[in-house]
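Why do we care about 3D structure at all? Because function follows from shape, and shape follows, mostly, from sequence. That is the central idea of this module. The next example makes it concrete: a single protein chain, its amino acid sequence, and then its structure expressed as C-alpha cells.
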Amino acid sequence: MLLKTKQQLNSFFKTAANKVKRNIPAAVSLVLTLTAVMLTVVCSAHTVTIFDGTSSYTTSGVSSDIPAALAKISLPNKNYNIVSVTNHIFSTKVHINYVITLNVKKGEEVESFSVTQGTLAQALEEIGIELDEHDSVSLPLDTYLYGNETVELTDVDFVTETYTETIPCGNEVVYSSAYDADVSFVEPGKVGSKTTTYSVKYVNGVAVDYTVLSETVNEYAVDATTVVGTNIPKHLTNLFAKADDVPSISKLDAPDSLVLDANGVPVNYSSKTTLRATAYTHTGNPMSTGKYPTPGYVAVDPDEIPYGTKMYIVSADGRFVYGYAIAADTGGFIYGNRADMDLFMDTHSECVNFGRRDIVVYFVD
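And the structure:
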C-alpha cells in the first residue's frame, strides 16, 4: 500500500519501531544460536591427517590435538617419531616415522639396534656401520625394513702385519789333519733374524687366511763348526789306525777322517747302537737304491736308518769286523722282524759263517 501523507508515513515508522523494540530479545537469541552452530560446525570440521611414509590416516576433531588424534588411529606400530607437523586453519598434517628393531649378526654375536623404518642402507648408516668393497650383508641394501628384522653382516678386513723371527744356526762338522786325532772343538755360530710381512684376512674379527707379501733377512745366520782332528801323532801311531788299514769284510773306501783307536773303535762318531744282524749275498738284482751290491752296502729299514747313512760296524763278540758301511738297500727282515740289519757278503759260505748275531754300529756321518 502506498503511503501518501506525512501522517501516514509517521504512523508506519512508529509501528515498525514498536515491532522492533518488542522483538529485540528474540533476534539476539537467534543470532547467538546461529553463531554457536556455526562455531560448532567449524570446529568439528578440523581434520588431522597422519602420514607414516606409506599410508595416510585421517580423523576429525574440535582442535588440532595431535596426541588425541593419534590415540584415535589404529597404527600398525605404536613406536614412532614425529618428523614434522604442518598446521592449516581447518587441518593439520603430521608426518611420522616408525621405530623398528634391527638385529645385526656378526659371526656368533648378535647386536640389536633401534632404527627408523626405511631401507637397510639407511638403517646401517643410522647406526654407523659403513660397508667397504669386501663386506657383505644377507639382504639387498635397498630392502625396506618393516619390523623386527635380522641381517647377517660379514665384515671382511685385510690387515698388513709383520713378524720378526730368529734364523737358527746349523752345525757343520769339519775333519782337519791340522789337529791331532784326539782333538775336537767347536767354533760357535750366530743366529740370524728375518722379518716377514703378511696380509692377514679377518672375517668378523677372526683371522682366516695369511698371504706372505715379503721376507727380509735382517741378519744371516752363521753355522757353528765342530772341528775334529784326524792327524795321528808319530808317538801314537801304534795306538791309532785308519779304517782302510784295518782288515774288514767291507770293500768300500773309507774316508781318511775315519780313524780307529787301539780297540778298533772310531775315534770320532756321532752315536752308536747295538742291533741284531743277518747276512745276505748276491740275488742278481740291484739294490733298492739302484746300486749293485758289494760288501759294505747294508740293508736297513729306511724309516729308521735313511739311505746314505754312513757307519762303521763290528760284531759285538769281536769276531767280525764288517768295517765301513753305507745304508743302500731295504731288507726283507722289516716285514718278518727277524733282524734289524742285513750285511751284504760276497759268498754264501760267508753268510752261513756269520749267521745271526749282535753288531755294534757306530754312526760316522
